[in-house]
Amino acid sequence: MVVAMTTRRLNDHGGTAAVEVRGLVKHYGETKALDGVDLQVRQGTVLGVLGPNGAGKTTLVRVLSTLIKPDAGSARVAGYDVLTQPRQLRRVIGLTGQYASVDEKLSGRENLYMIGRLLDLSRTDARARADELLERFSLTEAAKRPAMQYSGGMRRRLDLAASMIGRPSVLYLDEPTTGLDPRTRNEVWDEVQGMVADGATVLLTTQYMEEAEQLANELTVIDRGRVIAEGRVAELKAKVGGRTLQIRPTDPAQAAAMAALIGGAGLDGVAGANADPAEGMVSVPILSDEQLTAVVALVSARGFGIAHIDTHLPSLDEVFLAITGRPAESAETGDATGTETGDGTGEAEAAGTARDGGARTAKNDLTHDDENVEVTV
Ligand SMILES: Nc1ncnc2c1ncn2[C@@H]1O[C@H](COP(=O)(O)OP(=O)(O)OP(=O)(O)O)[C@@H](O)[C@H]1O
Ligand SMILES: [Mg+2]
Description:
Blueprint: E1 3-4, E2 17-28, E3 31-42, E4 46-50, H1 57-64, E5 72-77, E6 80-81, H2 86-92, E7 93-96, H3 108-118, H4 123-136, H5 152-164, E8 170-174, H6 182-197, E9 201-206, H7 209-215, E10 218-223, E11 226-232, H8 233-241, E12 243-249, H9 255-264, E13 274-276, E14 281-286, H10 289-301, E15 306-312, H11 316-324, H12 347-356, H13 358-368
Parallel strand pairs: 1-11, 4-9, 4-10, 7-8, 8-9
Antiparallel strand pairs: 2-3, 2-5, 5-6, 10-11, 12-14, 12-15, 13-14
The structure holds adenosine-5'-triphosphate and magnesium ion (MG).
Domain ABC transporter: 19-249
Protein name: ABC-type xenobiotic transporter
Keywords: Antibiotic resistance, ATP-binding, Cell membrane, Membrane, Nucleotide-binding, Translocase, Transport
């Protein structure tokens, strides 16, 4: 089921598509990692690609990075086709993979310098760019320490810095904050917001609803290789789950009586109300502004004092549940590592390098300059 939020075309926004994906298919044996995905990322915006484990997020990023080839469909990034113009395409993208791609033994500065050199910067330029990015990502003090001594957040910031060396116009961030504590996650969010403010177009994959809400302009929800919903974050939430109206009576002890009144009033489309006596709060699921007004009018007409009114959109976890009928966490039943099959074209190997150590493999692969190279730009 696709929840068609809006079927607007890009032109309706007056924007051009920095990333344009049509009918993308990628199978691994029986596994349909991508099963006909369509999406667009407008220039200068952030698209959140939201999906549980095994949804196909990393596969999508790998196709869009030219690390693997799709079985069918097409994809263009900054106007370049993934199949016919992979080299041009690689020059305009930055990739922060799901797994850290820095060389542990090298210092932060050496990592960035090396990547700059791989991208053909002169020694002077590579040094200058490394220092600039270390400063930008608050890593100047740690610049000379080996990356293995970095905290999770510092490593992630180094990953982001590494992806920025080539001044990419389109950035892929594959689950940039998975495994980070909340404070560190906030730091990474700040950095991403800074990149967007500087004009980058971002395709961000995430399993965190909150992350999508914080960073993304629009969302594409994927599940088992298929797009199951798309739209703006607020639209998606409102469409799927309605809203919850919360009313706090002036006298908290009256919460139960207020809930009983609302539940028994037979207001059109208002199914009922829940009282939370401990909080002195009443919650009412509503679908429209008219219902909100009717509920508030009813309780005030009956003499209840109102201390506070609020409405909440449902969380994206609830949205996912509403769309798929199951919680976001439990989509993948198989064991991803156990089903690695490859397909005889060296793609499994290329995909493996994306997981394990981009910077190091970048050195080897870039010198080969073949089709499926790992590029840490
Ligand atoms: N090289 C491969 N060989 C075989 N199967 C693969 C390979 N890469 C991915 N898959 C399978 O394709 C599906 C999609 O995987 P993918 O890594 O794209 O998911 P994901 O959305 O990134 O998940 P996660 O959130 O866990 O990173 C999964 O079922 C996975 O097991
Ligand atoms: Mg992944």
